Amino acid sequence: MTGGEQTAGRGAGAGPVLLGVRHHGPGSARAVRAALEEVRPRIVLIEGPPEADALIPLAADEEMRPPVALLAHAVDEPGRSAFWPLAGFSPEWVALRWALEQHVPARFIDLPATHTLAWGRQEDEAGTEGEHPPQAETAPDGDTGPGSAELRIDPLGVLADAAGYDDPERWWEDVVEHRGAEEGDALAPFTALEEAMGALRETFGSGGHDRDLVREAYMRLQVRAAQREFEDGVAVVCGAWHVPALRQKTTVAADKALLKGLPKVKTDMTWVPWTHRRLARTSGYGAGIDSPGWYGHLFSAPDRPVERWLTKVAGLLRAEDRIVSSAHVIEAVRLAETLAAMRGRPLPGLSETTDAVRAVMCEGSDVPLALIRDRLVVGDVLGEVPPSAPAVPLQRDLTRLQRRLRLKPEALERELELDLRKENDAARSRLLHRLRLLGIAWGEPAASRGSTGTFRETWRLRWEPELSVRVAEAGVWGTTVLSAATAKAEADAVGAEGLAGVTGLAERCLLAELPDALPTVMRVLADRAALDTDVGHLAQALPALVRSLRYGDVRGTDTGALAEVAAGLAERVFVGLPPACAALDADAAEEMRGHVDAVHGAVALLGDAPAAGHGRLRGRWQSVLRVLSGRDTVPGVIRGRAVRLLLDDGQLAQDEAALLMGLVLSPGTPPADAAAWIEGFVGGGSGGGMLLVHDERLLGLVDAWLTGVPAEAFTDVLPLLRRTFSAYEPGVRRTLGELVRRGPGTGAGATAAGTATPGFAAGFDTERADAVLPVVRLLLGLDDMEENIDDNLAGVTG
């Protein structure tokens, strides 16, 4: 009996009905439903992990909405996992739903996940398969199963090439998606596909991966067991690549021999939400299809799919404020049909509709097409799983918090603005920070557009299917998000390698509001700070500690212990910084300048923090800056920055700063050292350009020094000077150029002596400045802002 006869046969002794499919293929899904309606089997066997048999009834739950995936993970190592994704247009999903609707038993018959995950562990230990455990992936022929994506051949590509196609996707659309089941014989497409795959298996064997032979042996055993129980009422839905192997006549003993000695690992299985984006190959999931949104459309709109698709496209473009009329849709449909006829295709496919949209609706531009591909061709559909699905306790607690805080997971990235003065927003912030501590990156902090105050946070939220694995992995730390984050923070503190890591962890604990973890973190922090003698490490650690003090007011956390540690750390930095800045090369000096900037900002915050109680720190730090500014052994870039910081704080008069600059830029100073001093004083994004614009005495000193640099030394200092001035805004550079072209003041000497510059008075005219202040305040809205602040304070105190 031929393979086609066996497939179509349904009489006594005809054998199982083998329905070979392409996974995530809408044409295969429609054909499977038609075949099952015609065959009416007594049991449906589906390629997939048999551990999921108990989860099959959940597919009938009203709250289960594809795309979803079966997730298997090792109990002792939750990060070792595998997915079996199913979309609404997947043949396996259609087979499951049909069986449940008809009250027909359904079973999964692929190799158990307990062996799959153990195989992955062995390969990782041997270093042969890379870092990641195997996942259920779609092979090029549409087959699903761990490891099958490693086939050395592309079956669809071979068949498409034989048919004269250069694109396997286009060939598949023409021969499967654009033709329905032949009238009177719903099994005809499966017969043809089995014959094609049989020829490929005869030529290529297992396709270069012997693991498929083991999987197929297990599937044959399961088919035999079903036949013994249900005789000839067995239908099998599997990857078309496997059909010839399942049809193959082998002995039970031979199949069992292939399965002997397989490794095992204890495994849990559940349903998790999936996304269309994760079904796409471009997302990094190597088992997907190029256009899940398009395939979903073909499955849900079997009649007039082109007209319905182009209507969707027009709706999207209109929502983006592009002018698209009904006439555009009509013309695009005509063009797509004409292109299909010219290319010899039975119906317009994705390439024809895309070309029509580009020409008619996008005026030849590919920019709108990128939006169409992202939103429609791929799509942001996120599946849903009912609460009754098995889950680790941590996942259940997270789901409860998501519902209470009204934070629904979504596949499309969105921004979330939080006002921490509001109770619900503060709770949302705590949840997101706790999840980040657990390695569950549902949200990423972003820069706030409206305010830089500590009471406001901005997050970018996007739920990825892999986060379900991260939740299961984090379940080892606790049964709730709070307890798990606390345990994880304590473990991270004890295991941290450097002081900066512990200080960053302390900041994250305050953001996440983990009071039970803070004592452990603070103890480790104090121990590490006492033992670390590297000034660079201390300077790196201080800013994170001081930032943490600012969260006390908004979040209501006790930062007293943190303030004591921060003050002690600052004192040690003050003592050790001047010696650490001596005799540094250029790279080390640049790094130390960054530390000086960070410590300066930290001291400013620490001196203002009520919990710190150390107002003297500011005076101590200014003394350190004076030492750095006048010590010849300190590199010029650090000396220049110290002078600038003192000037900005009002601790150094402009005349004194000009005197120091004049000494540095004198002929006796090596040009390279002088250029480094200038870089420290007016470079590094510190607003030095505006300083030179508004203080022409300093600009005159720089100009006079630069014009006096010897020709042989100019080449050496040019890169540093170029780096300094190229960081300025274009408008600042243009203004400086105009001032230099005109000549600052009446000469550098006169300017330094205090002679008035053309266009500038000798001093400030406070009376004229006071006259314009009301207008400036009105333009900036400062009066309204202060009124709102007063109202808020009155509400808080009241």
Distance between the termini: 90 Å
Largest sheet geometry: 4 strands, parallel
The largest beta-sheet arranges its strands as: 1-8-2-5
- How many individual helices? 37
The outline comes out as elongated
Strand content: 5-15%
Unreliable residue runs: 1-13, 126-151, 609-614, 746-759
Structural class: alpha/beta
The counted number of beta strands is 12
Rg calculated over all Cα atoms: 35 Å
Q: What's the pLDDT, averaged over the residues? A: 79
What does the model show?
This is DUF5682 family protein. InterPro entries: DUF5682, LolB. Residues 123-149 are annotated as: Disordered. Residues 123-134 have a biased composition (Basic and acidic residues). Helices cover 58% and strands 8% of the residues. By secondary structure, the chain is an alpha/beta fold. A 4-stranded parallel β-sheet has the order 1-8-2-5. Helix 21 (499-512) runs antiparallel to helix 22 (518-531), helix 23 (535-549) packs antiparallel against helix 25 (560-580) and helix 25 packs parallel to helix 27. The protein is elongated, with a radius of gyration of 35 Å. Residues 1-13, 126-151, 609-614 and 746-759 have low confidence and may be disordered.
